[in-house]
Write a structure and sequence with these properties.
Elements (H helix, E strand, L loop, with lengths): L1 E2 L4 E6 L5 H12 L2 E3 L1 H11 L3 H14 L2 H7 L17 H17 L2 E4 L3 H4 L6 E7 L2 H12 L3 H22 L13 E4 H4 L1 H15 L4 E2 L2
Parallel strand pairs: 2-4, 2-5, 3-4, 5-6
Antiparallel strand pairs: 1-7
Helix pairs in contact: 1-10, 2-5, 7-8
Amino acid sequence: MISGRNFTVTVARGFGSGGKEIASMVAKDLGIHCYENRILTLASQLSGIDRQLFENVNEKIQKKTGFSRLLELLPKRKIPKPELQKFVSNDQLYEYEKQIITEISKTESSIIVGKAADWVLRDSDRVLSVYIEAPREFCRPRIMEKLGLSAEQADRAIEETDTYRAEYYSYYTGGNYWTNPVNYDLTLNSQKLGIDGCVKMIKFALIQKFPDLKIEL
């Protein structure tokens, strides 16, 4: 558990690096929510609503429980989902994702995985941005086990998913490079540090960046 002003941890991660697992473990340790696929699910639902109707719904949501309540009701993804298709932009959908991420950051402490959240919240002074990566020999067996794939299939899933994420990030950030360490406060190698080690490093970094937070390491 923690005490102090609200903050957001954004996590970008290579496919198979354990980034989502690490984010979930940090969230559990701190007693806060971790959001990933549910942001896309909610954004997809909202993007199908007439704009004026959405504004009315949005106003009611903000007055009552915020987007976080809606997200809590959506199912979490248990198994990693590779992106085996080419990136196709959807500006309207991204605008809803941005709004959801921004509203979450205003109303609660949380961890947000993916969705270029570090870029969306780049002007906030209460954000710790993290990038997690690992060599292929670490990622491959993890994907093989979780998805039941061969080594060749796992390699393809890693390559295509990371390419998709890089193109998504570049398009919506105006050409920024997804894996550029300058984009982030903290870059971690989950093979060298281990999953538990990465969890500890993120919590330590939170204390260093936000001295008002009271966190048990």
